[in-house]
């Protein structure tokens, strides 16, 4: 897979509302799957599919801690992606309000 293909895979993974919410939740630190299940009321199977897609895109990684599986962002650059998207959206929305394009 070349760099462009990986970039597209990352954008596709982040393009789903549930996966973007998972990423925002993980920006606050590692979480066990049980906490993710509490936060997102989806079936375990559905949540696992979303986590697998994020992991395959290189956005999250997991580790076994005792009997639990914990997920975390792959590194701080991933957090920067999420933060930058949120900043961009805020700027974009504010610009639309200021210019009256709403």
UniProtKB/TrEMBL annotation:
Transmembrane keyword on record: no
Organism this protein belongs to: Clostridium magnum DSM 2767
Signal peptide: none
PROSITE patterns to which the protein is assigned, alphabetical: HTH_ARSR_2
PANTHER family: ARSENICAL RESISTANCE OPERON REPRESSOR (PTHR33154:SF18), TRANSCRIPTIONAL REGULATOR, ARSR FAMILY (PTHR33154)
Protein name, as recorded: HTH-type transcriptional repressor SmtB
InterPro entries: ArsR-like_HTH, HTH_ArsR_DNA-bd_dom, HTH_MetalResp_TranReg, WH-like_DNA-bd_sf, WH_DNA-bd_sf
Gene name of this polypeptide: smtB_1
Keywords: DNA-binding, Transcription, Transcription regulation
One Gene Ontology molecular-function label: DNA binding
NCBIfam families xrefs: HTH_metalloreg
Pfam families: HTH_5
Residue span(s) of domain HTH arsR-type: 1-93
